[in-house]
Amino acid sequence: MATLGMSDRRTSTATGSAPSRPVPWVAPLLYLAVLLAGLTAAAHNDALFTPRTTGFVAGLLLLLLLERKPLWSWPPVALLAVRLCLIVAVAALDESGLSRALLVLVPFTAYFAFGRTVALALAACCVAVVLGLYALSEPTWYLDPEYVSDLLMLLIGLVLALSMAAVAIGEQRGRARLEEYAARVAELSATNERNRLARDIHDSLGHHLTAIAVQLEKADAFREHDPAAADQAVADARHSAGLALDDVRTSVRALRYDHRGGPPLPSALAELVRQLDDSEVRASLAVQGEAYARRYGQPSLTALYRAAQEALTNVRRHAGARRVTVSLALSADRARLVVTDDGRGFGPGVADQGFGLKGIQERARLLGGTVGVDSAPGAGTRITVEIPSDVPETGAGT
């Protein structure tokens, strides 16, 4: 319907979908049925090639043209008025009398353009008009079974048309809501992916760049006094640069650090501690319950690795610590990572300002875990990350 299509366009504006036409076949099918009935009646009365029959066919063709999309831009009231005038003209020229059934299209199309109340009012008007014509043409029409039958058929047609319109509107609104929800899900998924990539870049690339800067500063400081230490610092910086490049490639491919394809978590943590351990900072690692690692999936292991990586990066950048300890305790139901340093510490509220700690908290929260930060000025810092186990499909742990 023309007005139907305009209603679809208004409803679909919120979701950005293209206008659609629920039950587009109803009007053309009804026009075809009326055309066949009218031509059959005209042929039976030897009036097939008369001006009346020609006008009847032309009126139906004009009604069919109203279903074309270019006419959707017309005001709904104008389209409804034109349709009503054409239906009245076709009904007056029809030899069979079946064209009165086209009246059901008036409330049907009005339902999409103006809503249920207007459609019901127009349906009542259609019945009133038919009753008025009956009263003018045959005052005792209610005694004639043919008149009563025609009225009942009109009522049934109106009920079916309004019911079909209601179902079509409900389906169209449901589809619009579904499209809106799908758009929201897509937006949230894109936001989550951006946040994940931001955390990966911050936690991995930021850590490696900090390590490179520290090692190059160390090489510069020891260049004259201890060339061997300077060479080792340059080698460590080169190694960190290689790791940074690997992490950048991983982030570009939108993949997480894969502990199944790479070293196991204890070995990866040992590498982080080795990079930090030097003459200025003494770092150590303790691991318990390594056999329970199979009870933790890749996301959990990634979160623990990134948490340790970010904590050690903060030690390099801000803590001024002399000693750092990293402990990982795996059990059947929970993994616990603790990073402790004896640095300068910080006061309340400072932890909420850094992106790195927020990233740790986001990762843990997504896995049902918790993050605790204990620190005070001059008293060092203790970061505790706990994540519940998620036994892989390959079987339970020990």
Number of helix segments? 11
Helix-strand topology string: HHHHHHHHHEHEEHEE
Helix content: 55-70%
Globally, the shape reads: rod-shaped
> How do the strands of the widest beta sheet line up side by side?
1-2-3-5-4
In whole angstroms, the N-to-C terminal distance is: 67 Å
Structural class: alpha+beta
Strand content bin: 5-15%
Q: Rg from C-alpha positions?
A: 39 Å
How much is the average pLDDT?
76
* Count of β-strands: 5
Largest sheet: 5 strands, mixed
Total domain modules: 2
Low-pLDDT runs: 1-20, 253-261, 392-398
In short:
This protein is an alpha+beta fold and 398 residues long.
Tell me about this structure.
- By secondary structure, this protein is an alpha+beta fold.
- It has 2 domains: 2-184, no CATH class; 263-398, Heat Shock Protein 90.
- It contains 11 helices and 5 strands, in the order H-H-H-H-H-H-H-H-H-E-H-E-E-H-E-E.
- The chain has helices at 2-12, 26-44, 51-65, 76-93, 105-114, 116-137, 145-222, 227-252, 265-276, 298-319, 355-366; strands at residues 282-288, 323-330, 334-341, 370-375, 381-388.
- It has a 5-stranded mixed beta sheet with strand order 1-2-3-5-4.
- A hairpin with a 5-residue loop joins strand 4 (370-375) and strand 5 (381-388).
- Helix 7 (145-222) runs antiparallel to helix 8 and helix 7 (145-222) crosses helix 10 (298-319).
- The longest helix is centred in the middle third of the chain and has 78 residues, at 145-222.
- 33% of the residues are buried.
